[in-house]
Amino acid sequence: MCSIVERGARVLGVNIDKQGAMEIARRARGTPRVAGRLLRRVRDFAIVAKQDLINKDIADASLTRLEVDHIGLDKMDHKYLNIIAKNYHGGPVGADTIAAAMSEGRDSIEEVIEPYLIQLGFVARTPRGRTLTPQAFAHLGLKVPKNPAIIQGNLFD
């Protein structure tokens, strides 16, 4: 992925060092298209800051301002995770409910947001709906609910 970022920088005529390329590659979700998009945005930040070389610090500051965290999750990913964690106590919750809460289409939830979160092991698709894993709670800095059945209510209470 790093070599893809370095090649993209050469094509764009941008100077980038190895650490800057690594920072962009690390946050690119393993997807060349995403790496190219992030490189172009970091280049824009570097131009505005009048920097001739994209290094790790510039890449990190730019991606942080773009709200892309250290593992590549963006604002929409965090919104998705926080809705399930805070509104639905980790799930299970249906895709249509999540889509309505996010004001997004179900297709964009299932095709754009969920695949990377499932790949990371943050979200599990169950017959009852989407649930967050303990890794997702840890990434968000939230405590895992002790007994989701108590939070959701019990059928016989």
Question: Strands, helices and their partners?
Answer:
Blueprint: H1 2-12, E1 15-16, H2 18-26, H3 32-48, E2 53-54, H4 56-65, H5 75-87, H6 95-102, H7 106-120, E3 123-126, E4 129-132, H8 134-140, H9 148-152
Parallel strand pairs: 1-2
Antiparallel strand pairs: 3-4
Please mark out the parts with pLDDT under 50 across 5 or more consecutive residues, or reply none: 149-155
Which CATH architecture of the largest domain is right? Orthogonal Bundle
Total strand segments: 4
How many structurally independent domains?
A: 2
Taking all residues together, what is the mean pLDDT?
88
Radius of gyration: 19 Å
Strand content: 5-15%
Notes on the structure:
There is one protein chain. This protein has 157 residues and is mainly α. The protein folds into 2 domains: 2-65, Helicase, Ruva Protein, domain 3, CATH 1.10.8.60; 75-147, Winged helix-like DNA-binding domain superfamily/Winged helix DNA-binding domain (Arc Repressor Mutant, subunit A, Orthogonal Bundle), CATH 1.10.10. It has 9 helices and 4 strands. A two-stranded parallel sheet has the order 1-2. Strands 3-4 form a two-stranded antiparallel ribbon. A hairpin with a 2-residue loop joins strand 3 and strand 4. Helix 1 (2-12) crosses helix 3, helix 2 (18-26) packs parallel to helix 4 (56-65) and helix 3 packs across helix 4. The termini are far apart.
